[in-house]
Structures are given as structure tokens and as C-alpha cells.
Amino acid sequence: MDIKVSLATNFLDIILGPLSSLFGWVARLFYSFLGSYGLAIIFLTVVIRGLLIPLNVRSQRSMLKMQALSGKQAELQRKYGHDKQRYQEELYKLQQENGAMGCSGCILPLLQLLFIWPIYRVVSGPLHYIAQISMENLQKMIDTASEWGIIGKSVTKENHIALIDVLANNSKFFRHVVTEGNMSAGQMMDLHFLGLDLTKVPSINPATIMKEPSVYIPLLFLPLLVLIVNLVMMRMTTWLKPGYKEQQEAKERAKNNPARAGQVQQDKTESTMKIMNWVMPLMMLFTTFIWPAAMGLYWIISGLMGILSQILVFYLFTKPYELKKAEAELAKANAFKKKAAEQGEGDKSKSKKKKKK
What we know:
The protein has helices at residues 2-34, 37-68, 70-80, 84-97, 104-124, 126-129, 135-148, 161-169, 171-179, 206-211, 213-219, 221-239, 244-256, 261-288, 293-356, and strands at residues 192-193, 196-197. By secondary structure, the protein is mostly helical. The protein has two domains: 2-131 and 189-323, no CATH class; 133-188, no CATH class.
């Protein structure tokens, strides 16, 4: 078991270690410029989510192309509905030819999941990633604190939040590590933001809250905001997606005709998407109660950036597409009416000629 854990840790370090260092460097840059740990986390989040906007745009474009191909997809369904493998092959070929690959929408959530670990490394190890204290010196400080009996064994050089608390509240220990050259006085960080201690973990345990109510009661606003922001983002993702109105209308029609096979398949897909949409907010809420409060701040800003991204993409791509689609459908309807009217006039003319004869 220890070998498996060691291999998993080494794998994470090899794959995500450079990403943790990069995020730490960006956070350190903002911290040195702004002098605020909270603002550093906020601007780090803005940068990360800003870099993901092009992927969001690409995903939305792909969805619009998929929407435009819905007619051809329905033809394939009618033609190869009995042969699922052939249908999937033809559908893949159609999507590939038109640049509408359905998997593009999965990239963004996967990257968000990938970024959780390096962000956690930064917020649980700010003395290394932001204050630039070496891992070697951090281990010396932890060993000394352990020998003095002022720190628990669970503290590591990667997760040293409790060490920061000791440095802030034990002046004797702080003077000792500075004298030993483990750190300089200037490397000590203030990790408060808007009156919140971002090193603490939010808790709903009454015993924990009553020990330091001035610390833990304000922290409860973070998980509440995490939940609200991500629920709003989830709803906006649904409301602003291409073809939302058409899907709602199709659902109403399906109530009157539930035997439609295509609609059953669509409902299964939507059920899967609904489950996926709930996984991320619940996971975010869960992590705010097990990780430092700085992680909750990251989730809030990430959610707000997600909302902004959805609005931006809607007005740049989705709305113009739906307007063009509505205009095309109106033009088609008018052409049909004109043709019907001309045909009616022709029939009347033929009828008059017959009566004259």
C-alpha cells in the first residue's frame, strides 16, 4: 500500500509539480505587487479562468455547429437507427467533417479538475510557493516545532498551514527560526483578507465555532457563496446554451407524444449532463470544509469568471446564431406562404377558364 501511495505521489509531482510552481510564481507576483494574499488568490484565479475562455468559446462554437447539424443527425438516426455502431461511425464522420466534435465540451471541466491539485498546493503551502522558503528550511522548522511540542505530526512541508499559525502566535519560536536562518522576518505572511483568516478551514461543528466564533462564523459565508455562485452558473449554462428554447418546446411536445424514440435518447443525455452539472458544485462545497478558506475564495472567483464567460460567449456567438436561425426560418416560412398563395391563384385561374368553356 505504501509503495502505491508513493508511486501516486511521485506521479502527481512529475505531472502537476511544474503547474504548482507556475501557479505559485503567478501568485507570488501578485502578492509582491499588491501586498495582499487574498488579492493574489483572486488575480491568480482571474488569470487561470481568463486563459480558459478561448476553450469555452471553442466549446460553444462546437455546440452551435452541432445544433446546425441536427437535421442531418436526424437523417442518420432514421437511416441507421437499427445499427447503432454504424450510426455512431457516420455521426462521428459528420461531426469531424464539419468541425463539430462533441467531446470539445468535456475539455473545460477536465482542466478545471486538473487545476484543483496545483491550486491546493499553493494555498496549503504559501510559505514555499509565495514567500519562497525552501522545502529544506520548512522541514527544519517543522522538526523544531515538533521537538518543542507546539505542532502536530500531520504538518508537512507541503501542507504547513498550522506552522504559519505557530509562527504568528509563538514569538519565541519565530525568533528562533529567524536566528537559525530558516527564514527571514520579511518572509512572514499576513494571510488575512477582509477580516477572514484564509488559513482556517470553515466548519459547521458547533464546538469548533464556539472556540473562536469571531474567526469561524464569518468563514461560513465562503461555502455559502461558493454554493450560490455555482448554482447560478449552472442555471445560466443551461439557459444560455444554444437551442434551449427549442429543447423546452420539444419537451412540451413530447408530453403529448411520449413514444418518440429520439426524444427518449435526448432525455437520457440531458439526465447525464444534469448529473455532471451537480457534481462540480457539490465537490466544491465539500472541499471548502476540508481545505483552507483560500480555496473557497478561489471557487467563488472561478464561478464568477465562469458566469462572465458564459455571458460573453452568449452575446458574441449564441445570440447572433439564434437570430440568423430565426431569420432563416422566417424567410423559409414566408417563401412557403408565397408559393402556396401563387399556387392558390393558379388554381383559381384554371377554375375560371373551365367555367368559361
